[in-house]
Amino acid sequence: MLPFSLPWKNKDRTPVDKSPQALIPRITSFWLLIINVAVLTPLYDELTPWTLAICAICFVWRIGIFLGKVAKPPRLLVSILAMASAATLLLITGQLGTLSALINLLILGYALKYIEMRQRRDVKTIILVGYFLVALAFIDNQSILNTLLLAVVTIINTGGLVSLYQGKTRPLDPLLGSASITLLSLPLAGLLFLVLPRFSPLWMVPDTDSATTGLSDSVRPGDISNLTRSAELAFRVTFQGPVPSNDRLYWRALVMDSYDGKEWRQNPRVKALQNNAPNIPNQRPRPMGGSYGYQVIAEPSGTHWLFSLDLGYSESRGVVNMSNSRLFALRRIEQQFGYDVTSYPNAIRDPMLSALERHTNLTLPPDINPRARAYGQQLREAFPDPAQRMQAVMERFAQEPFYYTLKPPRIGSNQVDDFLFDNRSGFCVHYASAMVVVARASGLPARMVNGYQGGEYNAAAGYMSVYQYMAHAWVEVWIPSEGWVTFDPTAMVAPERVLDGFDAVFKPEDSYLLDNPLSSLRLKNWPLLNELRMQLASLDYYWSVWVLGFNANKQRQLFRELLGQASTERIGLFMLGGIICVLMLIAWYTGLLSLPKRRDKLQRKYHKLLHALKRLGVNLNISDGPRTVAHKVSRFNPNWQESITSLANEFEQLEFNPALTDRQRKEMRKHCLQQIERLLILVTLQRTTPTLMGELPLKQGK
Amino acid sequence: MTVSTRTAHSGFWQRWLARRLPAAREHTLTHKGIFILPTGFGVFWLLLVLLLFLFGTNYQNNLVIGLAMLMASIFNTCLIFGYRNLAGLTIKGHWPAQVYAGETLAMPIQLESSHASWQVGLNYPKNRIAEITRITDSAVEVLVPVRHTQRGRMNPGRVRISSCYPMGLCRAWSHLDMAMSPLVFAKPEKPDDKRSYMDFHGNDDVNGGNQLNGVDEFSGLRDYIRGESLKQVAWKQLAQGRGMLTKQFEQPQGEAIWLVLPGADTELEKRLSALSYLVEYFSRDQHLFGLELNGEQVAPGADESHRLACQEAIALYGENA
């Protein structure tokens, strides 16, 4: 019909929503391969073998799609696979635990969505889920290294989005874009992290179960396998005042007062109290007397046990002060948990003992350990004073040939008898167990306490580390008018164990490093490397205190230090100031702060003159060059001809003559400015008093 | 420039826009003309930030809370980047090529940025988006389509310049009135009865319809100019190896045909389409013709400017009344 038609005429029928922008750019496809590996690697531990297998298949398939070897899988296949996976996961949820099952489900969804994606929208979904998976990886491992790794993963994940919108095509461009955006966002993120209010958990969430501890809630002296040789950190302490000497560091965790001849365990009554702890949060009053304070950061242990010295009292959130002078966590400790304790070393623990408690702490299994019981009876007659009686037991450990060993010989059914009278060698549990039995047999209420003894002090950072291998057992005896008194029979056998720490007695290689060939504690023997180890430990400590342990208390403390007082207005102002600073930083980076350059003075004056001339009625256009202006002005008022022509000449020379020297240029500028000023005055006069101007002879400046 | 108002609400919006961003042939985007709001994806992003914050709170995990804060901060950074991407962009409108009703009009819009701007899309309301990946300080021109054109002076509305750079979390956009109302010619349609559109001013017998087809007299050959219609190419000469030549036709002067709008037997647009067709037809043949539309006359002529004058008169028919 017509000889011409527009080239896009035929495309007109393409619906708007199916425009090419909905497709996934190739660079994004490439980048998604990297993202997939990056996001799933930190979660490797959580994956069940067949989740891993499905992820691997999906990844290989995606590579195939990227290379153009295979087509996208049909929707039906993906749906069937997804449903089958979900069903299987549901079946094995019991074995995995709820949280682990949820993580696996999310990962499966992630992997299946990954092969199925077709549009930009799908890429966005995958990247959002990626962020959530990064968050899940933080639940299990919060070390500095893992955090750095996950920070890199986050940047890579963000790169996927950048690749969708930046339109650059070199493979690494998305990474650079994402890294710069992330780095620019860090200051504001840090600020928000500091000032945003912190809440306690809003509802119960499923726990992970992956922690180890050197303690257990039952101790069997006959069984040496439960002796922990772990070099892992148990908890860290910062003392507010001076650090107590090593022999005062008895970190109480568990009280074992039931003995059946084979096993020490916690009294069922105490267990019931623990289970009921959320309902009766405070089971004893704050003690009186001299005290010292410290903060403990417990490592994840999967238990509720907390650690305190002497008679500890804590007002931290989530901590219960149990009746048997212990602290108890309301939630299982699955992540680092920090709490404040005040200890009262001189306070009397339980000045009165109820009949029920007295009975519990005097009970011995009948018919076993006859020799030990006889020995107890004997002591009772020899030493009517309870304190002296216990002193006699302690001296017996010191005087008779007892040995401290981590590899004691086997003992029979009369555990205490065998140890006390035949073998005379064992470790803390044997000594504590024997002493409690003897004390009870002599008529004194006694119990075994489990916890940790000692600690490694890091002077540089000012905190103490307590490791799992420092697990210890000792004895508390109730003496009328003194309450519970601590005795450590092991200290009589191996005093250096208590005075100088565990390492003074044993070579680490023989004990806690036996099972840990790669532990950094091996470096203790080389001073320089040990220094390095301590530095790294300090870094880790600060990380724990200020990042992982940053809570509402720390926040208040920070505000007090920064602002003098933590009033709402000051915090508000601080936030506002901080946010403005951060926004300015980003704005500066993106180039928003570069102000428009001020025009050159000569140019400004020249334009001012043109403006004035125009108002006077000279017919000037914006596009007129200096010569045209001179011409028009001369016609308008011939008197000004010489002035304006010389100005135009010099103005043009300044603009277009590169041969001018700097000095000439300077002089010419000056002259130009003078001319302009004069003309401006003339123009103003002409406008205000036109009649006068007509009669005045023109003065020509040189 | 008046802006079409569809509803009362959009009317208010348009008036507000007209005050804030008055029509101009050239715009440079500043904070005055740039709007930013989160996209749907951006809203999901913020929801995820909230979810992660709750997640971190419930697990008392500061690192998860930190991740949430980082994502919130990234959102903020994207706002600034998105704004920066459009700020300093200079948009200049050019006159489009001629277009007939029903065809897609391509508005040439020239873009230039004081820095690099990425992934900018331009579109007129209810039209497809023309995308440019990168704009630098050297000007680029994009053709922004306007579909479903109608005869007459057309107001394409405000062109929307938008970008989701850098991460698709928020969209920065501006609505600019390019102060251009291009003319849309009537759609040329061959009439069934040509003669009713022609007035021979009494010389019916001399210049009858049969002569019309043969009015062209071959007057010679000249060098082919790129872009000329292939219909005029002298193929025989090309085959002889004499290169590409164009056949030239002339018709005797003085035999002007007058095109007129006949009485209302069919609907107006149909008749105007027929006139448009005839204008094209005679212009191609370089036949001398004039146009008379209800008293308004375009004096006879045969060149390109005459064709445009006639088409303009047809296009504007009824509009100035």
TrEMBL record, chain A:
The answer to keyword Acetylation applying to this record is no
Q: Where are the transmembrane segments?
A: 23-44, 50-68, 75-92, 122-139, 145-164, 176-196, 571-595
Q: What range(s) does the Transglutaminase-like domain occupy? A: 420-491
Protein name (database record): DUF3488 and transglutaminase-like domain-containing protein
**Organism this protein belongs to:** Shewanella corallii
Q: Which UniProt keywords apply?
A: Membrane, Transmembrane, Transmembrane helix
Matches recorded under InterPro entries: Bact_TGase-like, Papain-like_cys_pep_sf, TgpA_N, Transglutaminase-like
Q: Looking at the keywords, is Transmembrane present?
A: yes
Its domain of life reads Bacteria
A Pfam family cross-referenced in the UniProt record is TgpA_N
Automatic annotation (TrEMBL), chain B:
- Which keywords fit this entry according to its UniProt record? Membrane, Transmembrane, Transmembrane helix
**Transmembrane feature ranges:** 34-57, 63-83
- The superkingdom of the source organism is Bacteria
What protein name is recorded for this chain? DUF58 domain-containing protein
In which organism is this protein found? Shewanella corallii
